[in-house]
C-alpha cells in the first residue's frame, strides 16, 4: 500500500527537525524544537509542531502563522499593543510582520501552519 498524500502531524515522520537556542533571548535560556511535517515546494506554506522551554525572546514574524497550543501556555506581548495569554486548547493567528515578545513560563508545545505570501486580506 502506498503512503498516500495526507500528512498526519506527529505520527508521520517529519521532513525536518531543528533544535536550537532562541535568538534574541530576553530572559532565561529558551530552547526550541521545530518538527516540519509539510513544506510546500514553493516554500510558502509549512505545517508542523514546535515546542520550547522557559524563557522570553523578541520576534518579528516573517510569515502569517496559525498556532494551536497543545500543551503548556505562552504569553505574547505585541510591540506597542496588548498582551495575550494562550493556554492548551487555545488557537490564534499572528499576522506577518507583527513584532512581539514571546514568553514561555515553563514549557509550551504548539501545532503551527505558516504562509509567507498571501494576496489580499
Helix share bin: under 10%
User: Helical region count?
Assistant: 0
Going by helix content, strand content and strand pairing, the class is: mainly beta
Q: What is the makeup of the main sheet? A: 8 strands, antiparallel
Percent of sequence in beta strands: over 45%
What overall geometry do the principal axes of the alpha carbons give?
Answer: globular
CATH third-tier fold name:
Jelly Rolls
Please tell me how large the radius of gyration is: 15 Å
Look at the structure and give the mean pLDDT.
Answer: 93
Q: What string gives the helices and strands in order?
A: EEEEEEEE
At the first level of CATH, the class is Mainly Beta
Number of strands: 8
List unreliable stretches of 5+ residues: none
Whole-Å distance between the termini? 41 Å
How many domain units?
Answer: 1
Structural notes for this entry:
The chain has 121 residues and is mainly β. The protein has one domain (17-115): Jelly Rolls, CATH 2.60.120.10. The chain is built from no helices and 8 strands. It has strands at residues 16-21, 25-28, 31-39, 45-60, 64-78, 83-87, 91-94, 99-115. Strands 1, 2, 3, 4, 5, 6, 7 and 8 form an 8-stranded antiparallel beta sheet that branches. It is globular and about 45 Å long. It starts with 15 loop residues before the first strand and ends in a 6-residue tail after the last strand. The model has no long low-confidence stretch (mean pLDDT 93).
